[in-house]
Design brief:
Largest sheet: none
Oligomer: single chain
Structural class: mainly alpha
Number of strands: 0
Number of helices: 11
Length: 237
């Protein structure tokens, strides 16, 4: 009889809290750290070409490398695609389109209210929002948008909410998911901050109610493609 791998056995014995910490730190630790460091910096937030081919390639390589470890680790821990609610369906695709439209609608309302209610100069904030370079490779844009959409939603929504909801409640899962999503988007400045919070709440609530991850992934991929192609104030890697 084949003996079990001692490393696998050690991983299986880890407490849920340790598992959660490993996944969050491995998936989002570096992006959160870099995003926090960018606050108040003059180079990142004011750059007219924050997203360039080199930067997108770095995101692609990093997220693929992170995914390899996390897939291996979570499979040993007993996580499956079914547990996350990830399956591609026509219903999920239509929900994703509806989520995309709803997200843009909510963001327009939020940004309009913010422009009138907040003391910050929203025109200047929009001008400083990270912009894509004009010479972006479209094949790279589609590839990075797909990988990034899958990576973020699997871990920031699917994993976090599934892990926390049974022990802390659905809204704890949604709020933690939204908070982490905000932390690694701080580099986007005021516009990103007021956009990411409603987006995170909408995405998290839809996932918690439907237990379908594909609508979030599909909407996220489209948001990234639109943002990187047209320079819109939507989501971006």
């Amino acid at each position: 009889m084949k003996e079990d791998n001692p490393l696998h056995e050690l991983i299986r014995r880890l407490p849920p809290g340790v598992e959660f910490l490993i996944v969050i730190m491995w998936a989002f630790g570096l992006p959160i750290f870099s995003s926090i460091l960018s606050i108040g910096g003059s180079d990142a937030s004011s750059s007219k070409e924050y997203y360039n081919n080199t930067g997108l390639m770095a995101v692609l390589i990093m997220e693929l490398a992170q995914s390899l470890f996390l897939i291996w680790f979570l499979r040993i821990r007993g996580w499956t695609l079914e547990k996350l609610g990830l399956s591609i369906t026509w219903r999920g695709t239509l929900l994703g389109v509806a989520l995309l439209i709803g997200t843009y609608g909510v963001l327009m309302v939020v940004q309009t209210i913010a422009a009138k209610a907040l003391p910050a100069d929203m025109a200047a904030a929009v001008a400083s929002y990270p912009k894509p370079a004009k010479d972006l490779s479209m094949s790279l844009v589609f590839l990075v948008s797909t990988v990034n959409g899958i990576f973020e939603e699997v871990f920031v929504a699917g994993y976090i909410i599934t892990a926390l909801a049974p022990v802390r409640g659905i809204w704890a899962g949604i709020n933690v998911s939204t908070g982490l999503r905000l932390l690694y988007h701080l580099y986007q400045g005021p516009v990103g901050i007021i956009s990411v919070v409603p987006l995170g709440l909408m995405f998290g609530y839809l996932y918690a109610r439907t237990r379908m991850l594909w609508p979030l992934i599909f909407a996220h991929i489209l948001l990234d493609i639109i943002g990187l192609t047209f320079g819109a104030s939507g989501d971006a890697p």
